[in-house]
Design a protein that fits this description.
CATH class of the largest domain: Alpha Beta
Family: Belongs to the enoyl-CoA hydratase/isomerase family.
Keywords: Fatty acid metabolism, Lipid metabolism, Lyase
Bound molecules: octanoyl-coenzyme A
Order of helices and strands: EEHEEHHHEEHEEHHEHEHHHH
Catalytic activity: a (3S)-3-hydroxyacyl-CoA = a (2E)-enoyl-CoA + H2O; a 4-saturated-(3S)-3-hydroxyacyl-CoA = a (3E)-enoyl-CoA + H2O
Helix content: 40-55%
Number of strands: 10
Enzyme class: lyase
Strand order of the largest sheet: 1-2-3-5-7-10
Radius of gyration: 19 Å
CATH superfamily of the largest domain: 2-enoyl-CoA Hydratase, Chain A, domain 1
CATH architecture of the largest domain: Alpha-Beta Complex
Structural class: alpha/beta
Oligomer: single chain
Number of helices: 12
Function: Could possibly oxidize fatty acids using specific components.
Largest sheet: 6 strands, mixed
Shape: globular
Number of domains: 2
Length: 258
């Protein structure tokens, strides 16, 4: 399907989704969010896809929600529209792994979008921020909750209250991103990481994703029980038999998602 605000390529089991509003630094407007929800849902349902990479341009992953689109709205407008809620819920329902490849500005809703992915690979030019306070608002799609879980209260408060940007080094040091690579190598590294994920059993990858995400949503005791039961359950799969047999036979595993 052709999109107005996205470029989607599917190759070698990887769906690469690129935000594409260059004139607005990929600001998230309603059309982009709708298309993104559609593209992610389609990739999740596509049997050929085993991993998804979400990226922007070299200058901006996304500079936030579209301020031009929001500026004149009233409380009733945003409340009744429940702005971006169906779209972010669609993103969070995606069961296949999503890697965010971030270069340049990753601000406001852009930073929140990156944090909804499963992990973030950043270029050395990446700048993260939650500058909503400068506009007289607060983050609205998870920034106060997720950033705090990633980097802790003190740094999250600092980012949200001052609106300052965090460079890639600081983002890696504080646990927001998993790795930093030179800007020119960002897409090679992100696609290589996606290819690694795509080699695994997608069935097992979905269980890993659910288990790690559970750690954000429940008590340690419940999370440990969930993980243990998932571990037990995977012994009912062919991929567990194949993975362990391949190790013992010193060969590459051939997973079939069964
Ligand atoms: N929205 C709309 N347009 C934008 C945005 C944005 N967030 N960011 C940049 N643009 C546009 C600019 O208006 C400009 O367009 P034009 O050429 O037509 O004037 C173009 O992109 C290029 O931007 P700049 O000229 O400003 O580029 P600079 O390199 O000088 O500056 C910055 C780059 C620092 C990124 C600057 O553009 C900036 O500060 N942007 C705004 C960042 C921001 O405040 N983001 C937070 C937005 S609010 C938000 O994300 C809330 C999310 C929660 C929604 C929840 C709903 C429930």
């Amino acid at each position: 399907m052709a999109y107005e605000t996205l470029i989607v390529d599917i190759n070698d089991h990887i769906a690469l989704i690129r935000l594409n509003r260059p004139d607005a630094l990929n600001a998230l407007n309603s059309a982009l969010m709708r298309e993104l929800a559609d593209a992610l849902t389609a990739a999740d349902r596509n049997d050929k896809v085993r991993c998804i990479v979400l990226t922007g341009s070299e200058k901006a992953f996304a500079a936030g929600a579209d301020i031009k689109e929001m500026a004149d709205k009233s409380f009733v407008d945003v409340f009744e529209a429940d702005l971006f809620t169906p779209e972010t819920e669609a993103l969070l329902r995606v069961r296949k792994p999503i890697i965010a490849a971030v270069s340049g500005y990753c601000l406001g809703g852009g930073c929140e979008l990156a944090m909804m992915c499963d992990f973030i690979i950043a270029s050395d030019t990446a700048k993260f921020g939650q500058p909503e306070i400068n506009l007289g608002v607060v983050a609205g799609i998870g920034g106060t909750q997720r950033l705090t879980r990633f980097v802790g209260k003190s740094k999250a408060m600092d980012m949200h209250l001052t609106g300052r940007f965090m460079d890639a080094e600081e983002a890696e040091r504080s646990g927001l991103v998993s790795r930093i690579v030179p800007a020119k190598k960002l897409m090679d590294e992100a696609m290589a990481a996606a290819a690694k994920v795509a080699e695994k059993s997608t069935l097992t990858a979905k269980v890993v994703k659910e288990s790690v995400n559970r750690s954000y949503e429940t008590t340690l005791r419940e999370g440990l029980l969930f993980e243990r039961r998932m571990f037990h359950a995977l012994f009912a799969t062919e991929d567990q038999k194949e993975g362990m047999a391949a190790f013992l036979e010193k060969r590459e595993a051939q997973f079939r998602d069964r």
